[in-house]
Amino acid sequence: MINVQGFNEGLRHNYFELLRMLYPSFMGEKNLDLKEEGDWAYLETEGQKQSIFLGDLDQEGKRLRVKQFLFQDLDLEGRVSSPFGILTGVRPVKLVLELLDQMNEADLLNYLQDHYLIEGDMAELLVDIAHFEKKAFADFTRDSYSLYVHIPFCPSRCDYCSYPMIKSSNQESLRAYVDTLVKEIGRFQGITRPPSSIYLGGGTPTSLGPHFLEKVLDEIVKIFPESPEFTVEAGRPDTLTQDVFSVLRDHRVTRISINPQSMQEKTLRRLNRQHSIQEIYDSFALARDYDFTINMDLIVGLLGEGIEDFRDSLEKVIQLNPENITIHTLSLKNGSKLFEQNQHLAASHFIQGALKESRTLLREKTYNPYYLYRQKKILSNGYNVGYSKKGTASLYNMAMMEEQESILGLGMSSSSKFYYPEENRIEKVGQYKNLRDYLGHWQEKTEEKLKLKEDFQW
């Protein structure tokens, strides 16, 4: 167990996350203790005690000295390397964006490597993405916003998933949810400013079926002015039909995601994904008839897969030539079946190599990285990165991850973020996370959002 004592709350959290990231095995039976006493910090584990002099350092100085010690000087059995150095947050590109205006590129690369101990090729990747995103955000104003609408239904729960999910076979719940969601969307009647982007996510929104999907989309296009980017997650091929695609096309949808996660039949069965590889090919071919920009997701580190399996999946997806490909690293979250079964280190040894290999291969095929983020409990200190062909990057993915504009979230479990750039401040409103509370009390959170909306010219 990792114990951090004596520091203020911010430092305790910072140190704990770095230690958990570098030494995940100490989250079990092993003990690792870090505590502050006077001018010193002491680290004790496996019968060894080490000290770090802090003197009269301020909080930032303490944070940096202790984290650099933990990363550079502490070397215990079970250490998992990290290309991100001492960074522990989920938004490393956001940090780089903030630094871009403060120093030239050469100084910035040196700073990332010397101050945060980030590996050289990772520092270059972060800076490249930050430059790309800065151009994408050039037209944002204080009143820019994107719309997110959440659909918590899926045909089945994949073993790696921990999100609140309701089976789409539960038609009574599905009908009640859609009726309530339409009411919530309708409360924003009167908005005249078009959103920068619209994103219908989940869950699997297309699991609603054409009738209920159309009902939700009808209300969105009625209430919100047309957006140049409208994405619907169509992740599960077993939910995709000609009728579904027709509904999407008729409601101004421009982008979809068809997410195999793996192109290995054995893996799909193991993950409880109730579709075949052939259904992926069939759905992709059908979607091409509707002129959508298509993203496809793959996951590195799935249980039972090695580097050859991942390489084969990536090559098959590249052959399909979607506009976007997103490479995720498996994150073992509380509540997922894989976490509960403690099945989480089987493939971690090859993850960093697979991520670098995919970056090289995708760039050769004219896919360039355009956004990147991390997650807690991600295997082998990996990361998730989206690649796109020229002119097809998702503005929503970038804006949402770097928190560069407001996000209006609607639906159960959605999160709204109202961004005040003049103060670099974000006000958050989270909608209820279970169906009963959402159906019964959605108005309470919606009123909070409507009040904050008045601060912007939407």
Explain the overall architecture.
By secondary structure, the protein is α/β, with parallel strands linked by helices. It folds into three domains: 1-79; 82-134; 145-410, pyruvate-formate lyase- activating enzyme. It has helices spanning 9-22, 59-72, 92-100, 105-115, 120-136, 171-186, 209-223, 242-250, 265-270, 277-288, 307-320, 337-340, 351-364, 395-402, 435-453, and strands spanning 2-5, 32-37, 40-45, 48-53, 145-151, 153-154, 166-167, 198-202, 230-233, 255-257, 293-300, 324-329, 368-373, 384-388, 406-410, 415-420, 425-430. The chain has a nine-stranded mixed β-sheet, sandwiched between helices. A four-stranded mixed β-sheet has the order 1-2-3-4, covered by helices on one side. Strands 6-7 form a two-stranded parallel ribbon. A hairpin with a 4-residue loop joins strand 16 and strand 17. Helix 4 (105-115) crosses helix 5 (120-136), helix 6 (171-186) runs parallel beside helix 15 (435-453) and helix 7 (209-223) packs parallel to helix 8 (242-250). The chain is globular, with a radius of gyration of 23 Å. It starts with a strand and ends in a 5-residue tail after the last helix. 43% of the residues are buried. The mean pLDDT is 92.
Can you tag this structure with a few keywords?
pyruvate-formate lyase- activating enzyme; 15 helices; 3 domains; nine-stranded mixed sheet; 458 residues; alpha/beta; globular; single chain
Condensed summary:
The chain has 458 residues and is of the alpha/beta class. It is built from 15 helices and 17 strands. The chain has helices at residues 9-22, 59-72, 92-100, 105-115, 120-136, 171-186, 209-223, 242-250, 265-270, 277-288, 307-320, 337-340, 351-364, 395-402, 435-453; strands at 2-5, 32-37, 40-45, 48-53, 145-151, 153-154, 166-167, 198-202, 230-233, 255-257, 293-300, 324-329, 368-373, 384-388, 406-410, 415-420, 425-430.
